Write a sequence for this structure.
């Protein structure tokens, strides 16, 4: 068939007056080539991205699993240093309240990656303070339910949202047992380059992944951890759960910690002591 | 036996175009509302980070559930060989397609990024029941479309039976999938129940049939055609059984919740203390959506009353809408229990508190537009295609 095609194209003007059978063959060849080209156009970008990811320098590998330990005894009542630091670090403070949006609604619509919670034991009356953020589950329900795979878990255990393919269905928010996710309800004019966000997408704490990815050696910390330490509380300890020499792994080995909603068996990366 | 004549649904042009124009107006308002919400962002709605799915989702789920149920009439004709239902098969399939299209339109336009539809259609996470639902919905259009074709075109009529079976099983899977959207949400107390999937199937039977009865009676009134008493009686008795079925599942859902100590608070929230939700349950679902329709269907006083059948069907639809609202919105408003045995004194994310949701006009208009799109599609297709028999009298007027 290809010979016929070559001949017909070589004949120039004559090729317009091809016989019906040949014309049909040409059409088939055209359709075939179009399908191949369209297929290549669809597949190629995916391949290129995969290659780009595989050849990057600071590779994200499963040799690490990033996590946190929060000592609630050290978490101070009324202190919101971690929340403010997170908002500055990730540009959440740049998300402004729309003019006509009433305060009570805005309070429920504004993004929050980390929040402070004060609890009281119903039996003993003991009061506990703690921050809650994405718990970076080993088996994250948000990733399971996401129809497009926009919610994903990196090899190093960080749960993130790919905001290029998030369609804003909010199913992950329904699935998250920790209310750790926020939907961007409005247009965002300003944002930090390392924390891009867009209207109609969902987002949550990513353990300051940009700091980890930018790491030039030395200890990596998160914004909330730094702020907590600067406030003199040292309630948040961030590190590599898989490195037995890390301060986090040592602290976890020394004391009893627990997961919030351990009954769901999600094996969270964020653990708490003294709840 | 007599030969059925299917004919396009002709009626007085003024009545037809006025009806269509009115529906188009409603759809236009809904589309403008959707544009308003997408243009500004979801802050103009009542939805928040606590109640993330609002009234558009109630409409969408209601329509999708009803779509699969609307196909039942065709399935009874082809799969179970019910002669009284067979002439209704074409309209049943058409209505199923219309309802699903309306529901999906609402679902799509309520996305944070509806412009990324192509992403949703091409990038799949097969672990997600949502992704499977996209395939199930698309497949439903294809299979029911082919099924409808096999009913209408004699040259492909030999595929009628296998397609009827395929459509029947596909619809069962589809409703299971829709119910499973909630069943997979282990974190939320209201949804983490396996009973939801079969409950959604029975709900689909009831609401699909109720839609079918309303649409059929409206179409025949519109075109001044007649329906026999026996056929109406069959449909309304079947509706009664389905309403009873839904009630059984609702009762089991709440009774099992009340038995388990950790879920008892949830059911008391839905049934007693939850403000709008108990109100919707007792007056919307139970009285208007269950007791009144059952009374109208089974009371000898209303045996011959067409109005009673219509009111029963509309009541079932209102009750069904209320039930889905309670489950969907109430299930989100009810706080997740992150810290059993502790009270939450302070939280900026409303931990431990009941979330408030007040739907806005735009959200409501989008939902109503979804229902209207379904009705419009059915109205236009009924006028263009031979889906409805000339007469549905129990005895044919003349043999041919």
């Amino acid at each position: 068939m290809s010979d016929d095609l070559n001949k017909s194209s070589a004949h120039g003007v004559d090729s317009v007056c091809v016989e019906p059978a040949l014309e049909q063959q040409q059409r088939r060849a055209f359709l075939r080539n179009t399908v191949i080209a369209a297929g290549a156009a669809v597949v190629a970008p995916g391949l290129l991205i995969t290659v780009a990811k595989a050849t990057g320098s600071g590779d994200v590998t499963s040799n690490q699993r990033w996590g946190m330990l929060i000592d609630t005894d050290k978490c101070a009542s009324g202190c919101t240093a971690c929340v403010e630091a997170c908002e500055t670090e990730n540009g959440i403070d740049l998300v402004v309240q729309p003019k006509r949006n009433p305060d009570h609604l805005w309070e429920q619509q504004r993004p929050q990656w980390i929040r402070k919670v004060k609890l009281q034991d119903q039996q003993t009356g003991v009061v506990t303070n703690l921050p809650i953020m994405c718990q970076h589950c080993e088996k994250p329900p948000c990733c399971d339910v996401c129809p497009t795979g926009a919610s994903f878990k990196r090899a190093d255990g960080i749960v993130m949202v790919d905001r290029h393919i998030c369609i804003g269905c909010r199913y992950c928010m329904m699935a998250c047992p920790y209310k750790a996710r926020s939907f961007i309800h409005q247009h965002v004019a300003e944002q930090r380059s390392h924390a891009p966000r867009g209207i109609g997408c969902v987002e949550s704490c990513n353990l300051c992944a940009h700091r980890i990815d930018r790491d030039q050696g030395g200890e990596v910390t998160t914004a909330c951890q730094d702020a907590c330490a600067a406030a003199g509380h040292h309630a948040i300890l961030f590190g590599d759960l898989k490195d037995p020499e890390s301060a986090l792994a040592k602290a976890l080995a020394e004391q009893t910690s627990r997961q919030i909603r351990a009954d769901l068996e999600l094996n969270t990366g964020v653990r708490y002591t003294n709840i | 036996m007599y030969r059925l004549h299917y004919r396009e649904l002709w009626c007085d042009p003024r009545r037809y175009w006025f009806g269509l124009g009115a529906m188009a107006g409603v759809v236009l308002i809904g589309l403008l509302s959707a544009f308003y919400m997408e243009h500004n962002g979801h802050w103009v709605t009542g939805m928040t980070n606590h109640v993330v799915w609002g009234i558009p989702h109630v409409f969408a789920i209601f329509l999708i559930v009803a779509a699969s149920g609307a196909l039942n009439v065709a399935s009874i004709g082809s799969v179970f060989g019910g002669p009284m239902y067979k002439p209704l098969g074409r309209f049943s399939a058409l209505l199923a397609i219309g309802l699903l299209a309306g529901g999906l339109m609402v679902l799509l336009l309520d996305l944070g990024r509806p412009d990324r539809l192509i992403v949703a259609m091409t990038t799949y996470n097969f672990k997600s029941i949502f992704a499977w639902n996209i395939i199930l919905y698309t497949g439903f259009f294809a299979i029911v479309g082919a099924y409808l074709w096999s009913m209408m075109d004699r040259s492909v009529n030999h595929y009628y039976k296998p397609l009827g079976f395929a459509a029947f099983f596909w619809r069962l899977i589809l409703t299971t999938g829709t119910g499973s959207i909630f069943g997979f949400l282990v974190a939320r107390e209201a949804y983490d129940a396996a009973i939801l999937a079969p409950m959604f199937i029975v709900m689909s039977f009831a609401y699909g049939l109720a839609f079918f009865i309303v649409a059929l009676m409206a179409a025949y009134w519109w075109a001044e055609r007649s329906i026999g008493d026996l056929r109406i009686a069959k449909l309304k008795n079947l509706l009664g059984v389905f309403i009873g079925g839904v009630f059984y599942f609702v009762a089991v859902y709440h009774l099992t919740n009340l038995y388990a100590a950790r879920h008892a608070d949830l059911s008391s929230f839905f049934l007693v203390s939850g403000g709008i939700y108990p109100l919707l349950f007792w007056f919307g679902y139970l009285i208007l959506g269950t007791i009144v329709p059952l009374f109208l269907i089974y009371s000898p006083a209303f045996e011959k009353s067409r109005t009673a059948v219509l009111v029963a069907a509309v009541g079932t639809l209102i009750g069904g809408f209320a039930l889905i609202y309670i489950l969907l919105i109430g299930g989100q408003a009810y706080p997740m229990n992150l810290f059993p045995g502790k009270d939450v004194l302070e939280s900026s994310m409303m931990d431990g508190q009941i979330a408030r949701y007040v739907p806005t006009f735009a959200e409501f208009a989008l939902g109503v537009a979804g229902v209207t799109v379904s009705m419009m599609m059915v109205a236009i297709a009924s006028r263009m295609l031979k889906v409805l028999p000339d007469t549905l009298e129990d005895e044919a007027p003349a043999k041919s």
Chain A is about 35% helix and 15% strand. Confidence is low (pLDDT under 50) at residues 1-19, 46-57 of chain A. Strands of chain A lie at 66-71, 114-121, 127-133, 151-153, 159-161, 182-183, 202-203, 236-240, 270-273.
